[in-house]
Amino acid sequence: MRTIIADDHPVVLMGTRAALEAAGDIEVVGEAANGDQLVDLLASRPCDVIVTDFSMPGGRHGDGLSLIDLIRRRYPRLPVVVLTMVNNAAVLQAMRARGALGLCDKRAPLKEVAVAVRHAAAGRAYLSETIRRQFDQAGVQSTADTARLSAREIEVVRLYVSGMSITQIADRLSRSVKTVSRQKRDAMRKLGIDHDSRLSEYARERGLSS
């Protein structure tokens, strides 16, 4: 199985490559350090599965949900496995809804990535145990406040608390400044938050940042 991997941390990239190649039936045919490199690789190098980090700041193609959207739009048949530190069920569910077939917790043993790649190549979903527990808990606590946010609002909040301005987010997501500003305002209203500093604190507490 030909696989392209992407992560902005060299140590994670090296560890992921080693874990996949040790599996014996997976060949890493390319590595990328950001969304731009990943998109360029996909245009020039055929592969069977993508393994990508969720948060890779920088680059015109961005990261997170917008990058998943781009990949799924251009390569609808190509399975995507996401590596992430996010522990918020609403954000994780948004990844699945956008077409990520596998979700791997970066804190889990790297050998899980090979299992996820095999599942994805066969068209089957894969979740790390910790992520599965997040979904189970969310099923019990269906009134969790984050669940009230749309996927677009979640992405705006995630990028904002990472340090990006409204204008930068608008450029990243190809939306107008007015739209992004409204989505941030709507998210804060739904969450009952009236100050930007509280939004950052909330995001850290709820695992919206990664």
UniProtKB/TrEMBL annotation:
<dbReference type="Pfam" id="PF00196">
    <property type="entry name" value="GerE"/>
</dbReference>
<dbReference type="InterPro" id="IPR058245">
    <property type="entry name" value="NreC/VraR/RcsB-like_REC"/>
</dbReference>
<dbReference type="Pfam" id="PF00072">
    <property type="entry name" value="Response_reg"/>
</dbReference>
<dbReference type="InterPro" id="IPR011006">
    <property type="entry name" value="CheY-like_superfamily"/>
</dbReference>
<dbReference type="InterPro" id="IPR039420">
    <property type="entry name" value="WalR-like"/>
</dbReference>
<feature type="domain" description="Response regulatory">
    <location>
        <begin position="2"/>
        <end position="121"/>
    </location>
</feature>
<dbReference type="InterPro" id="IPR001789">
    <property type="entry name" value="Sig_transdc_resp-reg_receiver"/>
</dbReference>
<protein>
    <submittedName>
        <fullName>Response regulator transcription factor</fullName>
    </submittedName>
</protein>
<dbReference type="InterPro" id="IPR036388">
    <property type="entry name" value="WH-like_DNA-bd_sf"/>
</dbReference>
<keyword id="KW-0597">Phosphoprotein</keyword>
<feature type="modified residue" description="4-aspartylphosphate">
    <location>
        <position position="53"/>
    </location>
</feature>
<feature type="domain" description="HTH luxR-type">
    <location>
        <begin position="142"/>
        <end position="207"/>
    </location>
</feature>
<dbReference type="InterPro" id="IPR016032">
    <property type="entry name" value="Sig_transdc_resp-reg_C-effctor"/>
</dbReference>
<dbReference type="InterPro" id="IPR000792">
    <property type="entry name" value="Tscrpt_reg_LuxR_C"/>
</dbReference>
<keyword id="KW-0238">DNA-binding</keyword>
